[in-house]
Specification:
It is a single chain. By secondary structure, this protein is α+β, with helices and mostly antiparallel strands. It is 31% helix and 22% strand.
Length: 394
Amino acid sequence: MNEKPTIDFEAVLRESGMPVTEDEINKQFTEIVKAEGMVTNTSRMSPFWRLITAIVTTPVLWIKDILVNTVLANMYLATASGAMLRMLAWGVNLTAKPATAAKGAIRFYKEDARQAVTVAAGTVIQTERINGVTYAVTVDADTTLAAGLASMLIPVTATAAGNAYNLAPGYYRILPVAVAGIAKAVNEDDWLLSPGADEESDDDLRDRCRNQYNLVGNYHTDAVYRSMIAGVVGLSVDRIFFEHDAPRGAGTANAFLLLDSGEISQPFIDAVNDYINTQGHHGHGDDLQCMAMPETQHDLSVTLYVANPDNLTQEERAALVSGVTDLTRSAFRQNADYDVKRTWPYSRFSFSNLARELHKQFDVIESLEFSLGDIVSELSVPRLASFSVEVKGV
């Protein structure tokens, strides 16, 4: 069972004989009063009777709500939340993963390779606005680019924790404060050494708890490796995919890792493999290698049809193109700033659904056309090799 079950706890209480609505409580209370002969005037016009029924009914409704929404819901892994879910996680030896800040390396290019240049700790490299938000990383320590070097990778850390900072190559490229002797800075391929993560959500923690029940066997099953990788890497268990067909011979398998935003770098993969294989966390005789999820590259263009495009100011047109670009790139896992359906392995990426999301986000779009049809993926994730936007009149 992959989908979380839906349980009507109010119906459970009703089936057990507990009244759960005001009318049911009043009816049952009236029957008790009449049977005992305690009150003779049970007319709705009686202020005394209305007071008595309110005194009885209100606490019962409070108790019912507490039972339904708090006590019963938090007794089960499928429906527990917040602190109570974390108590259940503790029972299977898990704790919720905290938010972490992304760490990586930005390449700085000098204006003159012959000169030595020092980049100070705290130097900020930021993005353009993405859905109204600017992201930034800062240099970890004073770093000198020696004379003769044209460029150098410098370690950086995101200014705040979260998955949203795991941006694709090319996003971090703006120096809000110029650095003497530096021409530009940009995040390249494999820039992300340790991905940032949001505080673990209830759903992700719930999935890890379910996976934990599969760890009691004597062998390193998928669940064991999934638990180890998700715990170390900061990935959720549903973003780890296995290949079991003995790719390197008997006893071998691959684990492919996927981020919601950005691309997993080779240095990061190497660190995970070191944890599993070199530090002795693999099963006897096992050969498991972690890898970045294979990618398929796609050239995509979209034509936007708007009413009276000549009436759009230059700023409005630029904002429309930028917004459509960022949302589409978010769907292809280059940023996490839009709540859209993303590309997945073993899935069909629907451009009709992407069109619906663009219509919803940008009212000015009358119609749009994509250059590609739906992308059907196997053990791979679709990525954008190139993307362009054209604006036309209806």
